[in-house]
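INFO worker-7 received task bundle
INFO bundle size: 2
INFO processing item 0
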Amino acid sequence: FEIHVAHAQAAIEAGLCSVAVVAYGSTQRSAGRKNASPREFNPYETPFKPFMPSTAYAMAANRHMHEYGTTREQLAEVAVAARKWAQLNPVAFDQRPLDIAGVLNAKMVSYPFTVRDCCLVTDGGGALILTSSDRAKDFPTKPCYILGSGESVETTMVSQMEDFTSSRAFRVAGPEAFRMAGIKHSDVDHLMIYDAFAHLPMYGLEDLGFVKRGEAKDFIWERNTAPGGKLPINTNGGGLSYTHTGMYGMFALQESVRQVRGTAPAQVPNVKISVAHGVGGMFSASGTVVLSNQRP
């Protein structure tokens, strides 16, 4: 949905339309797996019977642990921080107390992930309305402005990633959005990183350049992303505790919009710039959007 927003912006600026609606709805939890679409047979991966997407993402997480010494406890802190944010959000799906032990001792899904390292399965939906800044300035609701965006793809097969410890799509989409917006990392007050699994915020922090490679584990462990931290991340509770309907990017964007408007349930003080970063497939594609309450 981050990519949809960028394309809608381009269409408006090109005069192809004056208003665009990006919308999404899913009954994934109600429908259950019985109605899920079958996955395309992949001759290079399907014969090994992976449990997708958990197995694919677990491969990457294991490599990050091997290369940088990332521990299961540090992965668990991602889920714990998300839950702390969810406890401040009255509509978050899971607000139960959660600590490191609770993550590590939960049911194993695909090592190193227990069920608490994995996203929720929920129903839900959302929509975003986009128009020109000239038209939006007269609306009763304070506008949220798009400063920049970026998108990229890598591979539909996780086994063919250039580097299991980093997403090439992340490394292209994020810097392009920052370049277009004309901002630096210190300008960012708030960050949303699609957290289908606990390691994704680590990859996002590193590949978007907020920290150096291998440093995200310590940055998160020191609670910099949790309530009261210097870089609030996934303040609605994220895909790990707020909602995950099969595709989460819509909800990351909505939280960024609420934060820059000052209307979020767990509002961060003085947010002027928020970045929403999404991922699709198993690191297959990525989109980044820079949002602000200041008109460019």
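INFO item 0 finished
INFO processing item 1
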Amino acid sequence: EPEDDLYVFPVSFAQQRLWFLDQFEPNSPFYNIPVAVRLHGQLDPTILQAVLDEIVERHEILRTTFGTENGEPVQLIAPTGQIPLTLIDLRDFPAEERQQEAMRLANDEAKRPFNLTTGPLLRTNLFQIVADEHIAIFNMHHIISDGWSRGVLLQELAALNPAFAAGEPPDLPDLPIQYADYAVWQRKWLQGQVLERQMGYWKKQLA
């Protein structure tokens, strides 16, 4: 249901653990998931920004922040959103220093913490090395991503960028299920007899 233009959903159990860890140790970069991609050939940053906008529109989790209701964490999903692409031109550096500077900046980004309340929980940087070589850095918090999700992001970037560059409409299927749908299902599933069986099993193991 909407709350101040945000849609409120329960968190999954994995998200609840990560939220708790963030409360216990705020401003920690330990659960950052950075991804670096080297891009060769001519690249228009405005097109890459449009691709990112499309991906954020497709995936609600990329528009999600976290709040609390009655002391419990909840997902807060914005109806729209944008992840700004930060362009950093390194061509003013001597040629032999550009890769090293890109590595330094990428490491700094990977260590920069996220704020789960304010977001965004995905940050993007684009380093220009020469006219036809860039390094893109995508940094996400683990509460909205994992190894599989990282692969989905890269696959959709690879599929959408040529289409947008050619002026063609995106050719990706609609997503019938979002992560918030899974969180709702998981919460409903782990109740009653299922919960009792799980609790009984772990009480036996831990005894």
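INFO item 1 finished
INFO post-check item 1: The mean pLDDT is 92.
INFO post-check item 1: The chain has six helices and eight strands.
INFO worker-7 idle
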